[in-house]
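INTERNAL AUDIT FORM
Audit reference: QA-55
Scope: verify that the stored structure record matches its stored sequence.
Auditor: D.O.
Record contents follow.
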Amino acid sequence: MSGHRLPRFLLLCAGAMLAAGTVFAQAKVGIINTQKSLLDTAEMKKAQAAMEATFKPRQDALEKLQREIQVIQQQLQTMAGKLTPQAEQELQFNGQRKQKDVQRMTEDLQADVDFARSDILRKAGAAMQDVVTKLAEGKGLDVLIDVSNTVYFKPALDITAEATAAYDKAHPLK
């Protein structure tokens, strides 16, 4: 570049950077705790209670089986030397079988709970995304950042409670 063009180019670059900085400084930003806003909705609280009720019988059966294993272990400890070798072997076998049953039941229950939870979160998460988008647009926000990715923010920027309220309004319980 010639001697006259370089300063003009630098001036144009500096002007563009100042204009970009001005636009950026005027951006409206909001903060949201996406997880909290979703988990605090009436729908999620109802879904959590329904899940607990659905899986409670299986949880209770699992706890009963664990108590039975404890009883067998206590019998083996307190009756050591008093049982016939065959009776002791039967108790040990019974305890081992119940332990395998506990392991299988635990794995099955956890898999079913995880599947149900992820299905609920997927559906509600998509609905929350729509609600948050409308809320942000209604507030004239240019950027909405999740609180998990922020180091500092003014509490006035937080729209988490508003998102929860908007979700509850858009998706009332039936």
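Auditor finding: record pair retrieved intact. The mean pLDDT is 88.
Action required: none
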